[in-house]
Amino acid sequence: MMQESGTEATSNGPASQNGAVSVEDGARDARPKSATSVDVTAADLIHLQQQQALQVARQILLQQQQQQQHQQHQQQQQLQLQQGTNLKSPKDNDNLPSLQVPVSVAMMTPQVITPQQMQQILQQQVLSPQQLQVLLQQQQALMLQQQLQEFYKKQQEQLHLQLLQQQHAGKQSKEQQQQAQQLAFQQQLMQVQQLQQQHLLNLQRQGLLTIQPGQTALPLHSLTQGINPAELQQLWKEVTNLKEENSSNSNGRRGLDLSSPQPPKKPLLNQHASTNGQYMSHSLKREGSTLDDYQHSHHSHPLYGHGVCKWPGCEAVFEDFQSFLKHLNNEHALDDRSTAQCRVQMQVVQQLELQLAKDKERLQAMMTHLHVKSTEPKSTPQPLNLVSSITLSKTAPPEASPPLSLPQTPTTPTAPLTPLSQAHSVITPNSLHHSVGPMRRRYSDKYNMPISPDIVQNKEFYMNAEVRPPFTYASLIRQGILESPEKQLTLNEIYNWFTRMFAYFRRNAATWKNAVRHNLSLHKCFVRVENVKGAVWTVDELEFQKRRPQKITGSPALVKNIQTSLGYGPALSAAFQASMAENNIPLYTTASIGSPTLNSLANAIREEMIGAMDHGNSNGSDSSPGRSPLPAMHHIKEEPLDPEDHEGPLSLVTTANHSPDFDHHRDYDDDQGHDDML
DNA sequence: AAGCGCCTAAACATTG
DNA sequence: TCAATGTTTAGGCGCT
């Protein structure tokens, strides 16, 4: 199945299926001028904002640092004055290297933000919650560290002073002094220890540090033994290392690391990585190790499928995984372009998620409003089963069937707007793909017809969503043939029409092609005509029309359903469109609405339905406006006589799982020339 | 429950 | 010979 998706991607190039494609294209366009300000996307703006926030934060930190240095200096002076000693000169300090604050510590720290400043940053609201959290944690750690440093400094000073005092004091009460000194020192040690513990506790609490049973011994031990700058430094290093590891390991999530020597080059990247999984962060983090990392899992590498690089807008083909990796590292390395693409992809995902959430909500509301049978235990909400699910109970069981390999349809969470008249058909996300055994709920085919002009949009829907169209093969074949300029198609052209018009038929080719051939042979309405270039298939409308009416007449309930669907058709379409539009999803719709192919298809199908309706429902209670019973199109014989082939709809839910052998690359256009945008 | 229509699968034949 | 194209049969399911 994976293969199919891969081949599809390449084969129906134009018929890109997921809405993301267009966005990606946009990214591709924007990518060239890497650093220039030409293309400013929303992501860029956000990035910019965050950069500015960083800038502000750094400035604030700088100021704070200066202030603190100043304060420290003042404190030192005060201390000196209080101690009544002017002996201590800067020089003296310099002469005590062992007491110096470790340089590395000094480099890493001194950037504590005051509450006011922090608030200021918060008010700007330019930092993400994660960033803020990390920032806060770092600030707390920094503050504690600074307290430690100050304490340590004070301790140095006091010791120094005491030393001097001792020298000056001569021999008098030396022991007393030593005792007092020891006492003071012990107190200081205790205070430092408390601070350290507090610090560690904080770190632990913040998840920045995991203290192992034996680990606590280290700091405490060193403290009790007397603080050694080297040890302190080591301790701090350990703590900071832990912190860094922690932050970098946390799903790639990373906030502003103000204390890190190198400013984060692309703060956003790792955030994006969180949505894209580990691969992204892998490739961005350390290219050197990517190869090995992927080696074992290349089969499932999201960026590699069917020998094709799936990086947005790339599609480069590779013989083997190795070359792909090479390509990945070379062409999609960490640069502006990749970054931009990554951002775009993230937005795409976010958009999709957003849309999904919205639609789910909407669906829920709709179901609630319509009192959709709550009997279904299914987890997933059922879409449009607008028509009271009469036969629901029946259909329910099958749906529990084994999951077929059908991949989820990316594009359509929403139901086809098709006037799924098939009332009973319960089109659920599940059923769509699990075609389980009985899959074919093709309900009365004859009834399901698209009815409203909105069929065009439905067409678009089917072109892009892997949803089985609710028409029989015969109906579809006929449609394809009638759409052709000469009203005739070769078998291959029919195949192409199917794949072009319905995403659903882009897979499981063997199955549906066989069905097509079977239908062509089986139904009298399809006439094989020898042509110059071989044989072509035409439609005998008379034969085709013969069988349509019958059913409709039969069941009032069905008629009712049809009416219902008629009424809902447009509404559904509108809802679908609204949904898409609302979420800014490009979807195939509008673009090709005016295409002749679609229109003709829509018309033809509509006719078909209308014809059926006429037969079954002569009074036309429904709203179908201007329904010219058949003929509107291709010499359709009016008389709806015998029921021969009136085809109903293909079951929407059908055997979706077959061997995937969609033979891509059959040009879709060999048949009629109008391939609209496909 | 029977009959019908449709779908899927598959065997087989024909053709290029 | 092979693949594409046609034909036919069989079985299953949903619906009436």
Commentary on this structure:
- Helices cover about 55% and strands about 0% of the residues.
- It is an all-alpha fold.
- It has a two-stranded antiparallel ribbon with strand order 1-2.
- Helix 13 packs antiparallel against helix 14 (about 320-330) and helix 19 packs across helix 26 (about 595-615).
- The two termini are about 25 Å apart.
- The N terminus and C terminus are likely disordered.
- The chain binds a DNA duplex (16 and 16 nucleotides) through helix 16 and helix 21.
- One of its GO terms (molecular function) is zinc ion binding.
- This is Forkhead box P1b.
Tell me the structural class: mainly alpha
What is the gyration radius calculated from CA atoms? 37 Å
- Order of H and E elements: HHHHHHHHHHHHHEEHHHHHHHHEEHHHHH
Uncertain segments of ≥5 residues (pLDDT<50)?
Answer: 1-54, 60-65, 67-144, 166-178, 180-186, 188-298, 372-456, 549-602, 607-678
Roughly how much helix do the residues carry, as a percent range?
A: 55-70%
Number of beta-strand segments: 4
Our measurement of the CA-to-CA distance between the termini, rounded to an integer number of angstroms, reads 23 Å
Morphology call: elongated
